[in-house]
Amino acid sequence: MTKSRALRVWPLALIGLWASCGPTLRSEESESVATTEQSTSCRGPDEESADHVWLLQQAAAQTDSDLVANWAGMGFVPVSAEDIVLAGDPTVCASVVQAYNAAADLNPPKDPPVDSLYVIRVGPRYDGFDPAVRAGEFVVHRVFDTTFTHLDTHFR
Protein backbone atom coordinates (compact mmCIF):
# COMPACT_ATOMS: atom_id res chain seq x y z
CA MET A 1 0.00 0.00 0.00
CA THR A 2 1.36 3.38 -0.88
CA LYS A 3 1.77 6.09 1.70
CA SER A 4 -0.93 8.30 0.14
CA ARG A 5 -3.41 5.40 0.04
CA ALA A 6 -2.64 4.56 3.71
CA LEU A 7 -3.43 8.15 4.71
CA ARG A 8 -6.78 7.95 2.96
CA VAL A 9 -7.70 4.53 4.45
CA TRP A 10 -6.79 5.39 8.04
CA PRO A 11 -9.30 8.24 8.39
CA LEU A 12 -11.95 6.03 6.78
CA ALA A 13 -11.13 3.26 9.26
CA LEU A 14 -11.56 5.71 12.16
CA ILE A 15 -14.87 6.90 10.75
CA GLY A 16 -15.96 3.27 10.37
CA LEU A 17 -14.90 2.51 13.95
CA TRP A 18 -16.74 5.58 15.24
CA ALA A 19 -19.81 4.68 13.20
CA SER A 20 -19.86 1.16 14.62
CA CYS A 21 -19.15 2.10 18.25
CA GLY A 22 -20.27 5.70 18.54
CA PRO A 23 -24.03 5.26 18.23
CA THR A 24 -23.93 2.16 20.43
CA LEU A 25 -22.13 4.06 23.16
CA ARG A 26 -24.45 7.01 22.86
CA SER A 27 -27.48 4.75 22.79
CA GLU A 28 -26.35 2.93 25.95
CA GLU A 29 -25.73 6.28 27.57
CA SER A 30 -29.20 7.46 26.53
CA GLU A 31 -30.77 4.23 27.79
CA SER A 32 -28.95 4.68 31.08
CA VAL A 33 -30.30 8.20 31.42
CA ALA A 34 -33.78 7.09 30.38
CA THR A 35 -33.67 4.16 32.80
CA THR A 36 -32.59 6.46 35.61
CA GLU A 37 -35.43 8.86 34.83
CA GLN A 38 -37.96 6.05 34.59
CA SER A 39 -36.73 4.29 37.72
CA THR A 40 -37.17 7.33 39.92
CA SER A 41 -40.42 7.73 41.79
CA CYS A 42 -40.42 11.50 41.17
CA ARG A 43 -42.36 13.07 38.31
CA GLY A 44 -41.80 16.50 36.82
CA PRO A 45 -40.85 19.24 36.64
CA ASP A 46 -43.37 19.97 33.93
CA GLU A 47 -46.53 21.97 33.35
CA GLU A 48 -48.63 19.65 35.53
CA SER A 49 -46.34 20.06 38.54
CA ALA A 50 -45.96 23.81 38.00
CA ASP A 51 -49.76 24.21 37.95
CA HIS A 52 -50.17 22.29 41.20
CA VAL A 53 -47.34 24.12 42.96
CA TRP A 54 -48.97 27.41 41.94
CA LEU A 55 -52.42 26.27 43.15
CA LEU A 56 -51.01 25.20 46.51
CA GLN A 57 -49.13 28.49 46.83
CA GLN A 58 -52.37 30.38 46.16
CA ALA A 59 -54.26 28.26 48.70
CA ALA A 60 -51.55 28.74 51.33
CA ALA A 61 -51.75 32.52 50.90
CA GLN A 62 -55.48 32.69 51.74
CA THR A 63 -56.49 34.50 54.92
CA ASP A 64 -60.24 33.78 54.94
CA SER A 65 -60.97 31.74 58.07
CA ASP A 66 -63.00 29.10 56.18
CA LEU A 67 -60.20 28.61 53.65
CA VAL A 68 -57.58 28.45 56.40
CA ALA A 69 -59.68 25.79 58.17
CA ASN A 70 -60.01 23.86 54.90
CA TRP A 71 -56.22 24.02 54.44
CA ALA A 72 -55.68 22.64 57.95
CA GLY A 73 -58.35 20.01 57.38
CA MET A 74 -56.31 18.65 54.46
CA GLY A 75 -53.37 18.08 56.80
CA PHE A 76 -51.40 21.17 55.83
CA VAL A 77 -49.89 23.72 58.20
CA PRO A 78 -49.44 27.44 57.51
CA VAL A 79 -46.43 27.97 55.22
CA SER A 80 -45.13 30.65 52.91
CA ALA A 81 -45.18 30.28 49.12
CA GLU A 82 -41.40 29.71 49.16
CA ASP A 83 -41.95 26.57 51.26
CA ILE A 84 -44.05 24.94 48.53
CA VAL A 85 -41.83 23.24 45.97
CA LEU A 86 -41.71 20.17 43.77
CA ALA A 87 -39.80 17.41 45.55
CA GLY A 88 -36.94 15.95 43.57
CA ASP A 89 -35.26 13.65 46.09
CA PRO A 90 -35.76 10.08 44.83
CA THR A 91 -35.69 8.71 48.39
CA VAL A 92 -38.49 11.05 49.48
CA CYS A 93 -40.53 10.28 46.36
CA ALA A 94 -40.08 6.52 46.82
CA SER A 95 -41.27 6.83 50.43
CA VAL A 96 -44.29 8.88 49.36
CA VAL A 97 -45.12 6.33 46.62
CA GLN A 98 -44.96 3.51 49.17
CA ALA A 99 -47.13 5.43 51.65
CA TYR A 100 -49.54 6.49 48.87
CA ASN A 101 -50.05 2.88 47.80
CA ALA A 102 -50.53 1.78 51.42
CA ALA A 103 -53.12 4.55 51.93
CA ALA A 104 -54.95 3.38 48.80
CA ASP A 105 -55.90 0.24 50.75
CA LEU A 106 -57.92 2.45 53.08
CA ASN A 107 -60.22 3.67 50.30
CA PRO A 108 -62.54 1.05 48.84
CA PRO A 109 -62.55 0.35 46.03
CA LYS A 110 -58.79 0.15 46.16
CA ASP A 111 -56.97 2.59 43.90
CA PRO A 112 -54.46 1.00 41.52
CA PRO A 113 -50.85 1.01 42.77
CA VAL A 114 -48.56 3.66 41.30
CA ASP A 115 -44.85 3.55 40.48
CA SER A 116 -44.27 7.30 40.44
CA LEU A 117 -45.98 10.44 41.64
CA TYR A 118 -45.80 14.17 41.57
CA VAL A 119 -44.62 14.99 45.07
CA ILE A 120 -44.92 18.56 46.24
CA ARG A 121 -43.31 19.55 49.52
CA VAL A 122 -45.58 21.89 51.42
CA GLY A 123 -43.41 22.91 54.36
CA PRO A 124 -43.27 19.81 56.60
CA ARG A 125 -45.86 17.95 54.49
CA TYR A 126 -45.87 16.10 51.16
CA ASP A 127 -48.73 16.18 48.68
CA GLY A 128 -48.52 13.15 46.37
CA PHE A 129 -50.69 12.65 43.31
CA ASP A 130 -50.92 10.87 39.97
CA PRO A 131 -53.21 12.57 37.43
CA ALA A 132 -54.36 9.11 36.27
CA VAL A 133 -55.72 8.19 39.72
CA ARG A 134 -59.14 9.79 39.91
CA ALA A 135 -62.29 9.82 41.92
CA GLY A 136 -64.79 10.73 39.23
CA GLU A 137 -63.45 13.86 37.56
CA PHE A 138 -61.07 14.73 40.40
CA VAL A 139 -57.43 13.75 40.91
CA VAL A 140 -56.76 11.88 44.18
CA HIS A 141 -54.20 13.69 46.36
CA ARG A 142 -52.77 12.20 49.54
CA VAL A 143 -50.99 14.26 52.18
CA PHE A 144 -48.18 12.85 54.35
CA ASP A 145 -45.99 14.21 57.11
CA THR A 146 -42.19 13.88 57.18
CA THR A 147 -42.45 10.35 58.59
CA PHE A 148 -44.73 9.49 55.63
CA THR A 149 -47.76 9.00 57.82
CA HIS A 150 -50.95 9.47 55.81
CA LEU A 151 -52.78 12.57 57.07
CA ASP A 152 -55.51 13.15 54.49
CA THR A 153 -56.89 12.23 51.09
CA HIS A 154 -58.44 15.05 49.12
CA PHE A 155 -59.53 15.59 45.55
CA ARG A 156 -58.66 18.39 43.16
Listing every helix as H and every strand as E from the N terminus to the C terminus, the arrangement reads HHHEHEEEE
Terminus-to-terminus distance = 75 Å
Based on helices, strands and strand pairing, what is the structural class?
alpha+beta
The major pleated sheet works out as: 5 strands, antiparallel
Strand order of the largest sheet: 1-2-3-4-5
Could you give the count of β-strands? Answer: 5
Compute the average pLDDT: 77
Shape: globular
Q: Tally the helices: what do you get?
A: 4
> Which spans have pLDDT < 50 for at least 5 consecutive residues?
3-38
Radius of gyration: 24 Å
Percentage of residues assigned to helices: 40-55%
Number of domains: 2
**Strand-residue fraction?**
15-25%
Give an overview in words.
The longest helix is centred in the N-terminal third of the chain and has 37 residues, at 3-39. The protein starts with a helix and ends with a strand. The model is unreliable at 3-38 (pLDDT under 50). The protein has 156 residues and is an alpha+beta fold. Helix content is 48%, strand content 21%. The protein has four helices and five strands.
